[in-house]
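quick one
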Amino acid sequence: MTHDPDEKICLLCKKTMVKQKTDFAYLGHSFHTDVLRCPDCGQVYIPEDLVNSRMKEVETLLEDK
Amino acid sequence: MPDSFAMSGKQAVRGCLRDEPAFCTAACPFHLDVPALVTKIERKAFNAAFRAYQNAVGFPGIVSRLCDHPCQTVCIRTRVDQAVSMRLLEQSLLDLATRTDPYAFNLPDKDRRIAIVGAGPAGLACALGLCRKKYDVTLFDRQKTVGGHLADRLPEAVYLADIHQQFMNETYTLVHREIRDLAPILAEFDAVFVATGAGGETFGLVPDRGENQAVPGAAATACPGVFMGGGVTGSNTCEAIADGLSVVQAIEAYLKVGRMDTPARQRSTRLKKDPADIALCPATVPSGGTAYTGEEAVAEGRRCVKCVCDACLRYCDLMGHAGKSPKKVVDDVEATLHPGTLAGDGTIAKRFIASCTHCGLCRTVCPVHIDMGEFLAVSHQALVEKGAMPWAFHEFFLKDMDFSNSGRAALVRPPPGNAESCKYLFFPGCRLGASDPRYVTAAYEALLSALPDTGLMLGCCGAPARWAGEEPRLRDVLENIRRQWEALGRPALVFACPTCRQMIRRHLPDIPGTFLYPLLQDAGLTGLIGTKHPGPPPVSGMESCSPANPHENRRPMPPFEGWFEDRTVCVFDPCASREEPALQQSVRDLVTAAGYVLDPLPMEKHLAQCCSRGGQIAVASPGYAREIVKSRIGQRPHPYVTYCINCRDIFASAGKPAMHILDILFTLNGPDRPPPNLTQQHNNRVRLQSLALETFWNETRDMAQMDSLNGIALHIPEPVLEDLDKKMILASDMETVVAHCETTGRKILDPETGLFTGHLKIGHMTFWALYRADKSRPDTKRFELVKGYGHRMEILEE
Ligand code: SF4
Ligand code: SF4
Ligand code: SF4
Ligand SMILES: [Zn+2]
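structure w/ zinc ion:
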């Protein structure tokens, strides 16, 4: 049996997660990006490399703003 | 805590000497910027140096021969060896420069007419200055030739050559006439400069050198449009030239706005410099006798220390690192506090403000005691109050403070027995027990044996709240300390940590306090013979986290079994001990008594530096914090002994052998002990509480009540824990995340790997755990953490 290596399953709803627009906020600013979410309950999946790259960059940017 | 906004930036740097002229510059009639000139000489930029000299003195040929160099009399080097020989440097420049002709200024002619009465040095200098600005200049003199009394001082060919060269691009009218009455001249000209020479005609006007109260302006007289300077006002030859050059500005101001009050230039300096900081360097002898060669000029130039006030920039890592003078810091901070009032990026100084370690060194080294640290603390608080300081810079430390003061770690007790109050109260501070609970139990045991009337208070002094600029939280902590102190009958606090001492002295000044170490010393209780210290060693399991260090290949041994070949150590004074000379001495005495040899650090005692912990800058400026640590541990090769456990653990985590004084006094740990990780620091505080209760009060804490994890157990392998530590994530945060995922079922499966992922916002941070079920016991609630991470952004999930 093979899986899509990027496949993630929401165990609460037993649903395959799909990319969806998601809102984020930090220090009074908000913005959005596409991340994996459960189509039913909306649970979000964020992998560590996203945290270490784009999210970290935006955080630093806003801190120095 | 100081009232926010109470200190404006201007007030903060009032009296700053940064812009004060060098001693030589202040004494120089021409206000020559000697440091700048000498810097050019050092670069062998002799033409540029000559140009600067020429611009300042007008007639370099004349001035280099006639100046009696008052700069050398006041040169700070006279207090060390000999003055920098500006006389020889200036004379040598005439030969060293290959281009000496003045620039031709291509400006349009101005139609204002100025009369100069007297073509001596002052008159000529004024004429030169005005001609260069293309005014219409007429020189009156009773002699046929120019130069006035220069004829008495130099061969005619010499001074005329200089005058002709400087005027080579200029034209003026020379009228051979003695002026006896100013009225006809005033009718014809827009302004007049009276430069009639020593004993010359004053036309009944009062000469003014700028000090005259009645006529405040530079070279002004009571008659509008008439200025006076040079020998007639008592100046010597070079001063006369300087008068002539400087009056140009006053005349121009008069022509433009009709005012006579251009201020006279500053003739003094408030600059302060300690000659003790200047290394001996004898004067350069010119091989040719009368002038330097290029190399010699460079050598002499190097002797100049370029006097300027830079103590704060030299000593403060932050200002030095950023290359920002106090005034620049103030400008940046004000722009940050009031964005939009100045052009440019409004909040440039946010991270800078959050990077001050509040070590107090700037105030100590500043000759006028300007306290940038205090200014930054007040600004920090103001930013917090405006909600403009990123919470992430301080949240970890504030949570840690709350933990220290929570029921899980804090403890306040009168001495064991039936007492309800006490005379002394041991306040070890939150970090000491977090590093090794035995520091606290051993010290308390020793204290009890000497001073049985000593209670114990475990908790945090509130320094993290102060550093975070969180005034209300600081108030809470302090109020709590005060309440408990009062309940115990107002005992004297016994401090182990200089920062706690500083905090209490500053914020709760009526609470008396003393330090643990001199007390132990006086009571002869240093346990140097070894004590039966209570309790087992601290939570271990850190061996694999031990950073590389020079002693790695040696077997760790107790400190008294030949750990150091020559038994040499350096006492590292924590920055908060700066104003505690008695404490500093007592620690040195104790270390010496233990048989160690002291090698003083370059920055010790009142110059004590921060280890990088102060201000909890590690999140705001991690790279800068690491740089500080590197510079501290590199000062001497020997192990350090300190009496702040933060210093000890921070140095140890950078691989520097370091001991706390209590390691020596109670034979606890060697200098190689790996620092506890963040999770161990938590656990050690919990352990300390139960250990203290057990050891001194015979009580046991019910640990079960603390467990809120619904029976979920999370195993965190050593390398994963190490990684969490680097990210400043606690094991307990990961446990909370996993327990949340497991109880709510909100988790994600990666079908490829079979791993679970889930997240939870704790405080402001969002933490993620990647974990797996324990395969060996699939039916239990046991899990293993694979990885943890966190971010500051909030996910708006709804
Ligand atoms: S050391 Fe240099 S800057 Fe200082 S007074 Fe002497 S010449 Fe001037
Ligand atoms: S040490 Fe710094 S703050 Fe103090 S007077 Fe000098 S330049 Fe100004
Ligand atoms: S308190 Fe220390 S770190 Fe802060 S500005 Fe002063 S010297 Fe620099
Ligand atoms: Zn779902």
